[in-house]
């Protein structure tokens, strides 16, 4: 059982947590109660519409995702933390605008956040437990049926925006979320009740695959993040030309968001880009054999998709890029790859490039990625 918190011990504990959170490299923390019932109909509607596609884990636990005490009995509070991940100088718009380059989501350029954050959250939990002389604490980072953004909103950390990201007024949206479920009766912070998107709809318009059904509603099956990371099979040929050079995740709906002018760069050494992944040529990555893929993605979230899907995604990127001899020669090296999935995407890319070389040499299918959007310090959020 947790100790009862007197007003004085509560204030001391909060001060201690402030210090520990900083030392452990988190950017912010806040506390919520566990009342997420308002979210249940929206989650249910999303599942009923099948927007989760093949992410069976989204449906497996049903409403438990929105009911923390059903996941961990006796939970009455959730401590939510966030951690900035955007590394400085990764020039996302320049890479997106270079069709021979591979665009990798900025969250995946460094070390996988799951383990890093879970380990630190477990350390934070142990410190709190010691100071509070008891209590139960379970740490999660996208690792269990937890409605992370709803909890963060409930803790007052930001609002779930039209692009469905959790946006913080002072830090934009380039951060990860993590939680500690606890039975320690900490005072809850004030929930965020206002959305600050106003009349803006830039994210809905920019989405390359038009994955938003409307504001606050995403059909994951069309989202490039889903297609390149979560989806295992063949990518719908109708969506391939829309994906441009985005080969692992997508950031367009964040890049265009005016609130991200307030984004803070990460100070975490482990989130710095590895192996030049922030600015690599599609061909170079496509030529990695499986052993190279496994070595270069060690400790990275990219490793989870495996070499086969890596090649699938890069083949789509190459098919959308310039029809150079270099690209075609690289693709040809995989025409007899043991995986039918890879062969099919490679054939698509080659025939697309050949057709393009014949009709309009030098052109690319890649969309103009951000339609020339360049946030400036003078931009005002809507
Ligand atoms: C499944 C999933 C995905 C799916 C589906 C995304 C989605 N929008 O749901 C896919 C693979 C597409 C995806 C993509 C990405 N993801 Co993701 N993903 C998740 C995961 C595992 C679950 C999200 C979820 O619950 N979706 C269910 C749907 C129904 O939620 P929703 O669309 O947000 O709708 C909710 C609200 O909008 C609300 N609602 C809507 N209208 C209204 C109205 C009222 C009145 C109320 C009360 C509520 C309400 O109800 C719904 C339930 O809360 C979480 C981790 C976690 N365990 O939470 C990470 C997570 C959301 N992802 C994250 C990230 C970083 C990304 C990407 C940026 C990665 C990338 N660069 O490629 C993209 C962003 C795409 C996007 N615009 O969302 C971060 C987001 C951090 C942040 N600042 O918000 C999370 C939190 C992981 C983490 N631990 O940090 N993701
Ligand atoms: S991540 Fe990309 S594809 Fe997915 S919703 Fe955002 S802009 Fe659209
Ligand atoms: S781009 Fe505009 S509408 Fe979309 S999340 Fe940002 S502020 Fe909201």
Characterise the protein shown here.
It is a single chain. The chain has 382 residues and is of the alpha+beta class. The chain has 2 domains: 7-88 and 110-182, no CATH class; 202-359, no CATH class. 36% of the residues lie in helices and 11% in strands. The protein has 15 helices and 11 strands. The strands form 4 sheets. The protein has a 4-stranded antiparallel β-sheet, with helices on both faces. Helix 1 (7-23) packs antiparallel against helix 6 and helix 13 runs parallel beside helix 15 (340-359). The radius of gyration is 22 Å and the shape is elongated. Mean pLDDT is 94; it is low at 366-379. Bound molecules: cobalamin and iron/sulfur cluster (2 copies). One iron/sulfur cluster (SF4) binds at residues 207-209, 211, 218, 223-225, 250, 252-253.
Tell me, briefly, the overall form. Answer: elongated
| Helix count from the secondary structure assignment | 15
Distance between the termini: 47 Å
Strand order of the biggest β-sheet:
1-2-7-4
Order of helices and strands: HEHHHEHEHEHEEEHEEHEHEHHHHH
Q: What small ligands are held by the chains?
A: cobalamin, iron/sulfur cluster
Largest beta-sheet details: 4 strands, antiparallel
Rounded mean pLDDT is 94
What is the fold's blueprint, element by element?
Blueprint: H1 7-23, E1 28-32, H2 40-48, H3 56-60, H4 68-71, E2 77-84, H5 92-96, E3 101-104, H6 113-132, E4 137-140, H7 148-154, E5 159-160, E6 166-167, E7 175-182, H8 202-206, E8 212-214, E9 217-218, H9 224-230, E10 246-248, H10 252-255, E11 280-281, H11 282-286, H12 290-296, H13 306-319, H14 325-332, H15 340-359
Parallel strand pairs: 3-10
Antiparallel strand pairs: 1-2, 2-7, 3-11, 4-7, 5-6, 8-9
Helix pairs in contact: 1-6, 13-15
The structure holds cobalamin and iron/sulfur cluster (2 copies).
């Amino acid at each position: 059982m947790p100790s009862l918190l007197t007003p004085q011990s509560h204030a001391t504990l909060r001060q201690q947590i402030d210090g520990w959170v900083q030392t452990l490299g988190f950017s912010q923390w806040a506390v919520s109660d566990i009342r997420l019932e308002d979210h249940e109909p929206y989650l249910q509607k999303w599942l009923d519409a099948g927007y989760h596609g093949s992410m069976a884990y989204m449906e497996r636990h049903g409403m438990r995702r929105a009911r923390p005490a059903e996941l961990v009995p006796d939970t009455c509070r959730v401590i939510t933390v966030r951690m900035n991940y955007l590394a400085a100088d990764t020039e996302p718009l320049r890479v997106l605008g270079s069709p021979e380059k591979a665009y990798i989501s900025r969250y995946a350029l460094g070390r996988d956040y799951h383990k890093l954050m879970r380990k630190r959250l477990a350390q934070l939990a142990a410190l709190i437990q010691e100071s509070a002389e008891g209590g139960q604490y379970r740490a999660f980072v996208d690792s269990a049926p937890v409605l992370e953004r709803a909890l963060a909103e409930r803790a007052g950390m930001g609002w779930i925006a039209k692009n469905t990201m959790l946006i913080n007024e002072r830090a934009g949206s380039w951060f990860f979320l993590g939680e500690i479920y606890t039975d320690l009766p900490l005072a809850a912070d004030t929930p965020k009740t206002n959305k600050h998107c106003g009349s803006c709809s830039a994210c809905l318009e920019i989405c390359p695959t038009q994955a938003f059904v409307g504001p606050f509603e995403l059909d994951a099956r069309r989202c490039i993040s889903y297609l390149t990371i979560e989806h295992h099979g063949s990518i719908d040929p109708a969506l391939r030309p829309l994906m441009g050079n985005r080969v692992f995740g997508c950031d367009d709906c964040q890049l265009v968001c005016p609130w991200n002018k307030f984004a803070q760069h990460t100070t975490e050494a482990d989130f710095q880009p590895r192996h030049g992944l922030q600015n690599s040529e599609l061909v170079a990555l496509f030529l990695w054999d499986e052993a190279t893929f496994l070595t270069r993605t060690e400790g990275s979230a990219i490793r989870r998709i495996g070499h086969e899907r890596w090649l699938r995604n890069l083949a789509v990127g190459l098919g959308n890029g310039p029809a150079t001899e270099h690209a075609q020669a690289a693709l040809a090296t995989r025409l007899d790859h043991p995986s039918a999935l890879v062969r099919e995407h490679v054939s698509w890319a080659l025939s697309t490039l050949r057709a393009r070389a014949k009709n309009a040499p030098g052109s690319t299918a890649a969309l103009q990625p951000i339609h020339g959007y360049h946030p400036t310090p003078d931009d005002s959020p809507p």
